[in-house]
Amino acid sequence: MVEVGDKAPNFTLPNQDMEKISLDQLLSEGKPVVLVFFPAAFSPVCTRELCNFRDRMSKLGKANARVVGISVDNPWCLKEFKLANRLPFDLLSDYNREVIDAYGVVLEELAGFKRLAKRAVFIITPDGIVRWKWVSDDPAVEPDYDEVVERANALGGGS
Fold it and tell me: Catalytic site residues?
C-alpha cells in the first residue's frame, strides 16, 4: 500500500468522456490532487460521498486542490453518475484495476462483486508525494470530509 511520504504511482486513465488523464498531468497544474477512490457509482454510500465532495468544492477550491474520483466502473457509467449528481470534477475509470492495485486499495469482494476500489482518499502535492491518506476496510465508512478539507488547506495554502 502507498504510504504517506511515498512517491505517488503515476497512472493514465480515461475519464467519463473517454479523455486520457494522467496523475503527472494533474500535478503539472501546480495544485494538490485529492484522489477519491470509491467502490461503485450509483451505490448509496458512494453517491453520498461524491456529493459531499461536490458540496465542499468551494472550500477545496480555496485550498487550491483538484479533486478526482476513481472507481472500477466503466467510463459510460461514470458519465451518467457525474451527470445525475452534478459532480464538478472528473471521474476516472480504473476498469482494468491497475491503479487500485498500485495504490493498494483493493476491496476483494462486496455484495458478490470482485476487486472493487476501497473507499480511500489520498492527497498528493505537486512534487508527486503522498502527504495524507485515509483508507477504510469497511465500505460503509466515509471519510471525515472536514478533515480532508483541512488537510488540503494546509497543503495547498488555503485557509
Answer: 46
- pLDDT tens sequence across 3-33: 999 999 999 999 999 999 999 999 999 989 9
* Beta strands 66-71 and 90-93, pairing class: parallel
For helices 44-55 and 75-85, the axis angle rounded to 10 degrees is: 60
For residue 102, count CB atoms less than 10 angstroms from its CB and return exposed for 0-12, middle for 13-18, buried for 19 or more. Answer: middle
pLDDT tens-digit readout, 30-56: 989 999 999 999 998 999 899 989 998
Phi-psi region of 33 (alpha: psi -120 to 50; beta: other; left: phi over 0): beta
Q: How far is CA 83 from CA 32, 41, 137, 142, in A?
A: 25, 12, 28, 22
Exposed/middle/buried for residue 30 (C-beta within 10 Å: 0-12, 13-18, 19+):
exposed
The count of C-alpha atoms lying within 13 angstroms of the C-alpha of 125, restricted to the half-sphere facing its C-beta, is 14
